[in-house]
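anyone seen this seq b4? input:
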Amino acid sequence: MQNPAMESLKAEIAVAAARLVVEEGLEYGPAKRRAVRQLGLPARSKLPGNDEVEASVIDYIDLFCADTQPRELAALRKLALLWMERMAGFRPHLGGAVWHGTATRLSDIYIQLFCDDAKSAEIALIDHKVDYEPRTVSGLHGEPVEALSLRSLCPELGEAVGVHLMVYDHDDLRGALRVDAKGRRPRGDLSAVRALFRA
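predicted toks r here
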């Protein structure tokens, strides 16, 4: 049986986290933790799920960013498509807020690459003289994964945007395409991203 007070508190954290996601470009995990601190709640407070935060993000965008967010999202998707085309040989898939439609100008772009050879994507960037920084980020199922992170100019926004190319083995692709709890595709390939512009 759900505790109404606890559910109310989780909803309050979700709303506060959503504001941080939209206004400061934080990822969901850090946004939830900072929301707990800002609300003066105990560090061990029960956190809302990412679905709850995403619902609050959608509400926040509808309320406060409805006039600017669609243009910003389209600009980020255009830049994502550019990088996916550049890395087409590595089966790129777009995920995160840019794929799901909740991104704003402060959002980074997350592209998963599924490579036969993990080093080949890095070599491709070196060959194209792209400055990048190798990092370890949280992967498809929360496991650590190597990412090649770079800044790329987004002409429509007039600023550089973070682009993270997350490198996976080719065998990981099948599991990456399972639908989520809402029945949505968690990421899209080149043809699916191109289709977003025709929708």
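The mean pLDDT is 92. The two ends are 42 Å apart (CA to CA). kinda curious what u guys think
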